[in-house]
Amino acid sequence: MLERRRGIVFNSAMDFIWLLIGYLFGSASSAIIVCRVLGHGDPRSEGSGNPGTTNVLRLYGKTAAALTFFGDVAKGIIPVLACTQLGFEPSTIALAGTGAFLGHLYPIFFRFEGGKGVATLVGVLLAFNPWLGLAFMASWITVALATRYSSVAALSATALAPIFAHLFGAELAVVSAVAGMAALVYWRHQSNIRNLLAGRESKIGKS
Prior knowledge:
The chain is an all-alpha fold. It is 74% helix and 0% strand. It has ten helices and no strands.
């Protein structure tokens, strides 16, 4: 019984540690860092106020947006991949990814003012299973080309993500984590949903 309890305590401690590691990685806001390095303004105070790829693209162009996107994807990949390579259980790996995602949404280094989570979710999904991440991106691209709305593409791909995770044979902990992150993506896109319903949402390529 004592050994069993020690095992539970150890697993709980490692789960918390990897959740924290993921969160700290996610808290490195790529949009803010890239804009500062390139001499641009703070994306939180301009445009839509969202420190994410779409707002950076509209404000400062393709180079800044591409760097922002790849930075956000990388911070989702790194903690999950590290946790996986070290041989931890799927539940711990799922928490590492969830931590990175939460860090992006609520970064401790930037007054908890983060983005909407889509690019970091892409990174987490790629690290969970490359096919899962690719399916998400393929869905995003397909809907974006059809509608020209970044938000519609993001919401559509996000809705499919838990289904893809299940179809690709992910463990229950991973599927549950993906579903939870998907719900938070929708929560963070409330303003976009209202704008879409009111016909005010900006299309891709428009300022």
